[in-house]
Structures are given as C-alpha cells and as structure tokens.
Amino acid sequence: MIRFDEFASCSAMPRLGEAQCARLRQLAECRTAMVIWDRTTTTVPPGALVMVLEPLNAVRAEALAGSLDSSAVVVVAGAEHPAFDAVKARFETHGLIGADHAEAPHQLWWGGREPVALPTGVYRRDGVLIVSCAGPAAALDQRRRGLSADIARLGLDAVVETLPSEPAEVFGCAAKIDMIWRQLQRTDRPVLWIDPEAAVKELPMLPQALEYDVAFHRRADGIIDTRVMAFRPSAATAALFKVWRRLNAGFPALPESYVFDQAWIVTSAQRQLETVWLPRSYCESDPMIQGAVVRVPPSLPRGSSELQISRPPAAHRFGRPQQPEPVLIMQSPDPCRRPVTVAIRQEADAPVADACTAIEAIASAFAADSGGFARLEVVLCDGDEIDPRMGGDGETWVVLTEADEPCALDAFVGLAQLADLAEAEPDSVVAEVSADPRAKVVRGPQRCDAGLGPFVRHPLPA
Question: What is the tens place of the pLDDT at every residue in 380-416?
Fold first, then answer.
C-alpha cells in the first residue's frame, strides 16, 4: 500500500490536470488503501483504490475484476488510449474527466464492479430542478400531464414548458437545448432533464449527491440515452452546450443522441469536463425490472424508423472515442494558419507510455509556440494507415508521427515553415489516397527537424 503523494508522483503516472488530481485525491480519501496493479499484484484490500497504468491482457484483467469487492474503485489515467478498453469493459463506468490543453492532456476514467451508488447523506426534494418540455400535440400533452402528476406526487421542483408549433423533429432538440441552458443560468442547483414520455417512480437523489458537469446513462449498445440527463452550471458545461447547439444547428437530420455524443467527445477533448454515468435505474425501459427511478419507453430497434435507418455507427466503445475523433484539441492564441491534425501512429503491442509521452510533448510544443496554426487536434492511429476521412474537410493540415518519435518545443515553428513551403509549391501534391479529391499525399519526406512530419494531407486552396 502507498500514500497518495507517492501515488500521484509515480514516474509512470501520465500528466494530470488540477481538476483530475483533485478528483483522484477525493476518490483516494474515501478508500481504505491505494494500490498500483502491475504484473506482480495478485490481491487487493477491500475498499481499495486501484490504479491501472499499463494495459492488461484478458487473464490479468479478469484477475483484477475477481480480486475487487463492490466498494473498490479502479482508476485509469491516460484512458483515451484504446489499449485500456479491455480493462474498462470489465467494470461499470462511474466517471470521466476530459483533457484540457498541455496542463491536462489525458483523460481520467474510474469505475467499479457495481454502478455508481447514492452516497449516504441527507438530501432535499428540491435539491435538483426537474426540467421538461413537450410539443403541442394532444398525445404528447397527455404524457406531459402524466409526468407533471409524478412530479407533484413526489413533491419535486420542476419547470415544464410547451414547445413552439414547429414540428418536433425540426425544432424540438434546439428548443430543448435552449430551455435547459436557460434554467442552468437561473439556478445554482443541478438541472435534471426528463423526457415528457418518461415516468418518475422514485425521488431522483443521485443528481444532487454527486459532483459532475454532465451526467447521463449510456446503454449497453454504446448509445447515450438523452431522455434523462443532468447538468450542473459550470464553465465546462457552458462549453458543452456551445458545441451541442452548434452541431445541432449544423446537422438537424442526425439523431439527437448521436449529435450530443459528438458534442461530448469534442468538449471532453479540450475541457476537463467531468462526466458521471447514471445507472440503468435512471433510464429503465424494461417494465419487469423493479427499482426504477425513472422509467422510459422501450428504445426502438435500430432501423425501425426513417430517422434511425441513417443513424451513424455508435461513436464509442466503452466510452472511448474511436478515430478519427481527437483525443486532444487545443486552440491557438495567435491563429494565422489553418488547423493541423497530428496523427500519432503506434503498433498494437507498443508501450502505452510512448503514446502518453508523445501526447504530452506535442501539447507542450503547441502551448509553447503554435506556429500560427489555428487549432491542434491529436489523434491516435493503429497500424500503418491513417483513416482516409481524417482532414477530409479540406481545411486541415495532417501530420503523421510515431509514438516514440521525440518532439521539440519548437516543432510547430518548423512545421509552419514546411506549410508555407507547401503552399508556395502546389505541385508537391502528387497523389490521392482515397476517392475524395481533397485527400492528398505530398511528395518527399517533408519532415521538420524538430520531430514532426511528414505532411500526409494538404488543406484545399483558399
């Protein structure tokens, strides 16, 4: 067993931000012991905090799961790396804190054998504000009256509004976003959104008992259920709503759950957004299951409606964004060039520490001098090929680097010089890597001496 200071300063520990360290300390203070699970660890004291710093094979992951009691918690720093998926898959996710600039370039994940539980305490009926809305249709209005009856029966504080007359599939989500945001600006309490078709069976105490920016339930198929979501007012929550509103306006035909998922991915890559996973009892759709806090109608099978036929694939496995979605996004203070994506390539059996070190070095270099690139996105890639969609918007430079390749603090200055050279010599674009004419490969190595390169994708001419 080790003390927290030794725990946090372990040489193998990835760089964590202030909010992440505070949450790690809070988790440690509630536990009986702190243990680093490595190749030699075989037992864990009851109620311990277990830190996993290296990926585990199936046998070791099963041994870890079998050694824990229901009160123990497992923590993964650098949780954005896909090599940790096998570990996280064996536990119920409790929470995640996103990445935030060079000071916190990694995600922090924690979970346990059981879903997150209500801590012992005294809670108020008005400790959370219930928010809901419905369209003017008679059927929806009848369901809304049922929800209002539940709220009145339980003595909950609630705001239930009627949407404008526009069709719900066109206007409903935008109105929902705006309504939740208005209530967040008016209160310092948690705001719990409940779909008008849901039924509240018990007092929803968990949203006021936990600390988070956003809380939701992710179904077994990986899809976020947006019918019950909780939010606390914070700067990170405001950033999430800004992205959510923009994506909803830009892609109104996509399912709400997918749009919110993408907004959550983007925000978690650039803010220490703290997310809590609500247990299934807050989105229970099986009428045979007892103990539901909020009961929702059964989800439609995939493809059972016109809207769901075009549903994109689930964006997550076990809560991790898959490529080409970024694990880290940083904005430049002095933008004068188009954005750049750095794709870190790593073989499946390579040490995870190499990728963590590469992310930290690239983030530090961009923070020291961005080279004028408007935005940095860092993506983890497997194998020898990058995803053909990466940078396919025609607005982004794409750079390929190895996980074990050093990156100097002036790397983006050298990269900017190569970008200027490539802009001045458009004939350097010689081949297409996909059917999309915007996806190009550049001639020659074109590698900057500071450790980044080569460019594998040019943005389209302005």
Answer: 887 655 655 565 566 888 888 888 888 889 999 988 8
pTM over 0.90: no
Q: Return all residues near 250 (Cβ < 8 A) that are at least 6 apart.
A: none
Same domain, 272 and 333: no
CATH code for the domain in which residue 219 is found: 3.90.550.10
DSSP E strand boundaries for 232-346: 274-277, 294-295, 316-317, 320-321, 328-331, 340-346
DSSP 104: B
Q: Is the pLDDT of residue 448 over 80?
A: no
Given the structure tokens 């694939």, which residue do they identify? 313
pLDDT digits (tens, 9 = 90+) for 141-181: 555 578 888 999 999 999 988 766 554 454 568 889 999 99
CA-based max dimension of the chain? 72
Q: Tell whether 164 and 286 lie within a shared domain.
A: yes
User: How many structural domains comprise the chain?
Assistant: 3
The residues near 246 (Cβ < 8 Å, ≥ 6 apart) are: none
Output the six-digit token pair for 115.
Answer: 């879903």
Q: Supply 339's token pair.
A: 């954005």
Where is the domain boundary, 68, 87, 112? Answer: 112
If one counts every other C-beta atom within 10 angstroms of the C-beta of residue 380, the result is 25
- Is 251 domain-assigned? yes
Cα atoms found within 13 Å of the Cα of residue 381, Cβ hemisphere only: 22
Range of lowest pLDDT (12-16, 73-77, 413-417, 456-460): 456-460
Same domain, 353 and 296: no
Same domain, 280 and 165: yes
H-run or E-run covering 50 = strand 49-52
Instruction: Give buried/exposed letters for 189-203 (b at 16+ CB in 10 A, else e).
Output: bbbbbbbbbbbbbeb
- The C-alpha atoms of residue 47 and residue 63 are separated, in whole angstroms, by 16
Q: Which domain holds residue 386?
A: 323-457
Residue 324: asked if its preceding bond is cis (omega within 30°), the reply is yes
